[in-house]
Design goal:
It contains 8 helices and 30 strands. The chain is mainly β. The strands form 6 sheets. A 7-stranded mixed beta sheet has the order 12-11-10-14-19-16-17, with no helix packed on it. The protein has a 5-stranded mixed beta sheet with strand order 1-4-9-8-6. A 5-stranded mixed beta sheet has the order 13-21-20-15-18, with no helix packed on it. The protein is globular and about 60 Å long.
Length: 515
């Protein structure tokens, strides 16, 4: 072998073996290109029309019934200008009730689309609002109480982008679907007929619904060809319950430029980017070397989530740089982040998250019965005694526990008619969200605000989590956020605060509050 060939060969091997356990098979040519959601902007009358509809999609060669907005699966990316009023007409063509919640938008309670914003089958609802927040990648999805998990799993989710003037001055990559690429990542499970296999039951109420197939914009391991240079990925973890941990197959870094609610002060370079269900991060990746690589998700420590194939890194998206050169840049500074206000004298509220111990035990039992001990890999579950769970009186097979109300905040499962408290409009409040006492992941989301994280699981937030956020990680400890609500949310249109693990939300880990 010529020395030159040897270097080429070993460099290629090096890339493949950069991740432990990374298989060459993952690099096999993937046939499908990444579908890009169409941009939907308001028409001349400042109107947007959405249809919630059923359709058919093909996964691994089999047809499945799926739901989408204006299409068969997922939805368009709605693009709005800060300060420009828009009217959205929503037509529900499903055979069941739904709502559309604007996740991350600071809009009044009557527009918010929480569980009270019900649209009956065959009917429509029109909302008008003016986004007045900074540039951000938000999203929209159903919020029908006790049905959110199912409706999202069926395919209902879309992106909503807000643009302001300052962000347009930055020379970030901004050719939609070329070097500014939305990536909605979701896991799904299919039955033997190829249909989406969703259940809300004791096991999913405890640990969440999760699948064995990872999709990027609705496709299994697609590829995207991009101009060589800086590539911007707008990542959404759209999973019902699975946290993801993104990295690249050849260890090239990700430069985080934005979190849920807007640009960071400056880019933050990371080797791996954990993302909770519901979270968005925008990252820039340098593809100037022209080499192909994969966006990958690494195994995570979360109850149930280490089940194969997720006990190993999984490819999400194959990226192929083209010879043409991209024009976007990675700026040194991105946005001004106001300093945190003084915390003295702020109203403080504590939200204690909890699960009915019977549900916890039966959920674990069902999980281990279905997937074995591997489901617990990486979890510190020393307090659990497998023996006692599998023997004696505990083996009820899930009967006798009211899992529909098995998850709680401050000891109560969600009650749509009784808001838990009234927040004062325009005032900062300090909310302490506690997951002390369980080992479950709770990606906690608050409507009507973009907040700042003061502490996350007892620690200061990581640099890329210190900007505008609407989800905070609560995992066996306490997290504190600084919230402020600038719009009204009266009793009949209260805002929601809830766990964004959708099966926890659907089984009670949610409260309403007024402003
Ligand atoms: Cu993304 Cu209350 O939800
Ligand atoms: Cu939860």
């Amino acid at each position: 072998m010529q020395r030159r060939d040897f270097i080429k060969y070993s460099a290629a091997l090096g890339a493949i073996s950069a991740l432990p356990g990374w298989s060459k098979a993952a690099f096999a040519a993937t046939p499908q290109t990444l579908p890009i959601p169409a941009l939907l902007t308001p028409d001349a009358q400042s109107r947007i029309t959405l249809r919630v509809q059923a359709g058919t999609s093909t996964f691994a060669g089999k047809n499945a019934t799926t739901w989408g907005y204006n299409g068969n699966l997922l939805g368009p990316a709605i693009k709005l200008r800060k300060g420009k009023t828009v009217t959205v007409e929503i037509n529900n063509r499903l055979a069941e009730e739904t709502t559309i919640h604007w996740h991350g938008l600071e809009v009044p309670g009557e527009v918010d689309g929480g569980p009270q914003g019900i649209i009956k089958p065959g009917s429509q609802r029109t909302v008008t609002f003016t986004p007045n927040q900074r540039t951000a990648t938000c999203w929209f999805h159903p919020h029908q109480h006790a049905k959110t998990g199912h409706q999202v799993a069926m395919g209902l989710a879309g992106l909503l982008l807000i643009e302001d003037d300052e962000s347009r001055m930055l020379r970030l990559p901004q050719q939609w679907g070329v070097d500014d690429v939305p990536v909605i990542v979701q896991d799904k499970r299919f039955n033997t007929d190829g249909q989406i296999d969703y259940q809300l039951d004791v096991m999913s109420a405890a640990v969440g619904w999760f699948g064995d197939t990872l999709l990027a914009n609705g496709v299994i391991y697609p590829r995207h060809a991009a101009p060589r240079g800086w590539l911007r990925l707008r990542l959404l973890n759209g999973c019902n319950a699975r946290s993801l941990n993104f990295t690249t197959s050849d260890k090239r870094p990700l430069y985080v430029i934005a979190s849920d609610g807007g640009l960071l002060a400056e880019p933050v370079k990371v080797d791996a980017l954990p993302m909770l269900p519901g979270e968005r991060f925008e990252v820039l990746v340098d593809t100037r070397d022209g080499k192909d690589f994969d966006l990958v998700t690494l195994p995570v420590s979360q109850m149930g989530m280490a089940v194969a194939p997720f006990d190993k890194p999984q490819p999400v998206l194959h990226i192929q740089p083209l010879t043409i050169v991209a024009s976007g840049e990675l700026p040194d500074t991105l946005a001004t982040m106001p300093p945190l206000p003084s915390l003295d004298g702020l109203t403080q509220r504590t939200l204690q998250l909890s699960m009915d111990p019977m549900l916890d035990m039966m959920g674990m039992q069902a999980l281990m019965k279905k997937y074995g001990d591997g489901a617990m890999r990486g979890m510190d579950h020393g307090s659990m005694d497998h023996g006692s769970m599998n023997h004696g009186g505990m083996n009820h097979g899930g009967q006798g526990v009211d899992f529909h109300h098995g998850n709680m905040i401050n000891g109560k499962a969600f009650d749509m008619n009784t808001p838990a408290f009234a927040a004062a409009k325009g005032q900062y409040e300090r909310w302490v969200i506690s997951g002390e006492g369980d080992m479950m992941l709770h990606p906690f989301h608050i409507h009507g605000t973009q907040f700042r994280i003061l502490s996350e699981n007892g620690k200061p937030p990581a640099a890329h989590r210190a900007g505008w956020k609407d989800i905070v990680n609560v995992f066996g400890a306490r997290s504190e956020v600084l919230v402020k609500f600038d719009y009204d949310a009266p009793k009949a249109q209260a805002y929601m605060a809830h766990c964004h693990l959708l099966e926890h939300e659907d089984t009670g880990m949610m409260l309403g509050f007024t402003v």
